[in-house]
Structures are given as structure tokens and as C-alpha cells.
Amino acid sequence: MGISRLEKQVDRPRTRGGFNTADGMFSVAGDQRIITWNSAAEKLLGYTEQQVVGKKCYDVLCAGNSHGRVRCRRECVVVTNAGKGRVTRDFDLECKTYDGAPVLLNMSVLLLRSGPSPREVLHLFRDVTDRRSVERASSPGRSAVNGELAVTNGNSTVVQYKLPPLTTREDQALRLLAAGKNTTDISEILAIRPLTARNHVSRLLAKLGCRSRLEAVALGTRSGLL
Fold first, then answer.
1. Which of 98, 135, 137, 193 is the most exposed place for a label (fewest CB within 10 A)?
2. Residue 100 DSSP code
3. Where in the chain is the domain with CATH 3.30.450.20?
């Protein structure tokens, strides 16, 4: 099936003009060929609309090593569900950019109907690579308690500072500060408001007794958390 016939298969202006989103967005037909591709998708993954329309979605997105609940492949669960009129809840998908870099995307799925069965499956996605990395690193039980700890390494003993108990968000904020992220970055990665991000950082500094973010990072490094 050529691109021109694919384009006639759906009402393209409905998909392009009916949605306004900062997320990446693309849609596929029942045979998994890409029909539409927005500018945010191009920014996130590096592929232009001209490069992907008419191609199979798994040929464009697949990282080849996905171990998640949903894999980008021929007859994936999203398309199978859509063929039965069922929606698929959001999921994380390992993908690759145009340059071949791995990226973790969180996908949401919408079914666009015309008649008894969907003619188009719409995917909305956002980059959660950094967010998931921070969430894994700050899983429960990883934060330390207050005080000093003598750690023996070979014939030497190192005094290591132990951080006071941190909330999950404070732990995530500290790790992101150590990665060189600012408040805006933290709010975007954790999907929270900038004001909320600033509050988490402020509480972190107060809890650690630090005057600056750099001092907090140094203390986190000293504790062995970073």
C-alpha cells in the first residue's frame, strides 16, 4: 500500500488539527503503518514526518532490546487490542532516536473511531528516561540516617557521613542536582510544577543544613549516596 492510499484512509486534518499537545504524537493504521507524526515527535526522536510516514512503526521506533510489558513489534498488543475495540493503558517503551541513541518513552494510546472499529490508533508519548532512572535510584530503603559511620576499606578506615532520612522527592532532587539539573529541569523530569520542585530543593537544603546546592551534592557524595 503506497503512502497516497494511506493518506486517503483517514481524515488527516482531523488528527493534525483536532489536537494541541506538547507530547510527541503519531498515529498508525491497522497494518501499523505510520499515518501522522507531529513536530514534538520529531523533536524527541529526530525523525521528520517525511522520513516516517508510510513506514511500519516498529521499524522506526524499535530499540531491539525492550523487556517491558509492551514491545514495539509486528502485531503488538496495542494494535491487537485496538482491532478488538480495546484500549491499552499507558506503558513505558524502549525506543531509539534517529541517531541510534536509546530513549525510554511513556506511551498513552487513543482510539480514533469511524464506524464499528478504529481506523486509526493514536500514540501520545513523552521522554521519561531521566525520570525512571531517578525513580529506580531513589527506591525505598536507599536513604541513609543521620550521623557518622566508620567504614573499613582494607587497612584504612574512612569516616562516612550518613544523611538524615530523605523523602523520595528529596532523594530524587538531590540526585538530579548532582547530575547538573536546575529547578526547571527537575520539574520537567519529575513531572511536577516548578514551584513544587523549588520547595523540594529548599526542604532538602534545610534538612541537610546546607547553604547551597553544591554543598548538598558534596554532602551526598560524602555519604556514598551519589
1. 193
2. -
3. 3-127
How many residues make up the chain in this entry?
226
Long-range contacts of 117-120 (CB under 8 A, 24+ apart): 117/83, 117/85, 118/30, 118/82, 118/83, 118/85, 119/9, 119/10, 119/29, 119/30, 120/10, 120/15, 120/27, 120/28, 120/29, 120/35
With CA atoms as reference, report the closest residue to 95 among 121, 131, 70, 120.
70
Strand partners, 62: 95
**Cβ of 34: how many Cβ atoms within 10 Å?**
25
Give the whole-angstrom CA distance, residue 2 versus residue 151. 66
Instruction: Provide the 10 A C-beta neighbour count for residue 125.
Output: 24
Q: Which long-range contacts (CB under 8 A, 24 or more apart) does 54-58 make?
A: 54/2, 54/3, 54/6, 56/31, 56/32, 57/26, 57/28, 57/32, 57/33, 57/123, 58/32
Residues in the chain with pLDDT < 70? 1-19, 63-69, 113-118, 136-161
Domain with CATH 1.10.10.10 in the chain: 133-223
Q: Please state which CATH number belongs to domain 3-127.
A: 3.30.450.20
Question: 514491545: which residue's cell?
Answer: 71
185, 123 contact by CB (below 8 A): no
Contacts of 213 by beta carbon, 8 Å cutoff, 6+ apart:
177, 201, 205
pLDDT digits (tens, 9 = 90+) for 111-147: 876 655 567 899 999 998 888 877 766 555 444 434 4
